[in-house]
Design brief:
mainly alpha
Length: about 425
Amino acid sequence: MLFLLVLILSLSPFFATSFFPIVDAPAHLYNSSLIKQMIIDKNEFLWDNLAFNDKPVPNWTSHFLMSVLLIFFSPHITEKILLTLIFAGIPLAVRYAFSAINSERKYLSLLAIPVAYNCFSGIGFYNFSFGLAMIFLNLGFFYRHLLRKDTRTRNYFIFSVLLIVTFMCHPVPLMITLILSGLLYIWFHAGHYGSKLKNWFSKKLLFLMAATIPLLCLLFFYSKAMYTGAERSFLYLSGAELVDNIWSGRSFMVFGGAERPRNTLIAFFYLSLFFMGLYTFIADFKKKLQKGLQFYILIFVLVILALYAYFPDSDGTGSYITLRLAIILNLAIILFAFVSPVSNKLLLIVVVLTLTVNFFRLSFYKKTISENYSIAGRVLEQEGRIEPGSYVVSFNMVCNFINVIYSNYLWLT
């Protein structure tokens, strides 16, 4: 009950206005409407001027969902449903995974609520946000259904579908899902079979490998489509920038630098969770090394940290890679604290402090969203100049970027 109450309160910022006026949100809603008009309404004008990308690229999930929702709901309600699925979906997915592993400590899923509001929420990167939820949905399903000895064949099929959906969200969450699933498989078999590697190669492994075949095919065609032979430019952040992103809570910044003090506090609380868990691990190193899940989740955290330091921030095809990994690192730290034998009293203190700071953070968001919505409202006042049935084409002019973005809302007229 407490979890649902806190979750509902956390949804309040984007219910404060008719729309949630963030950078890419209007364009996503407009594009989804175009997809719906082409496929469902058979709009000949759009078919004559637009075409679907025939390559198996990700970042399709939110557009697919909104295109379907627009069949039944108004654009206002469609956007609200999608945002609810994202902002509630991440904490609920974490809670589902935690319930599968240890239901007594599932209250720690409350710590995923602040992570749902991150820098990609502010620019409307919906598909990556869905991918964050998919990481933990996959984790919960894998732990609950695929580590059992009596796993049914249909569960491998479901897991195969979940992997494909994760790919259609974003490649980074897919990569994290595969790493985490592999570590769970090693942990489970190391605990049951020890060093007898021949027992690891069982029917279960064959079925898991078969479940990844559709995904591997998608990845093959995707990589083939993305490879153009052209030289790609890589942009790396300095070490100081990488440290500042984590310490200052840069990955939590939705609307700007004014929220930095709150985000820094939340980042501090998450880092304190990591060091609490690390202390308990070092205090009983030998036991954890032999059979503890904590050891493998610590490896998971360190792998993400290594990827965060190694990967470029942009590789010519994708951007903000380090910030994406920083967000996932915070979720991994929550998972690490969850499996660590840290005192529940200490964990509850961190949860209460984090949610308290997040409450003030959400209040700031409400005010900022209302201000942004006033700009969107001024753009919508131009609807009287548009003839009904017309199509709005937005031009991205840097000198007037915010108004151009919100002009995507004019198609509602």
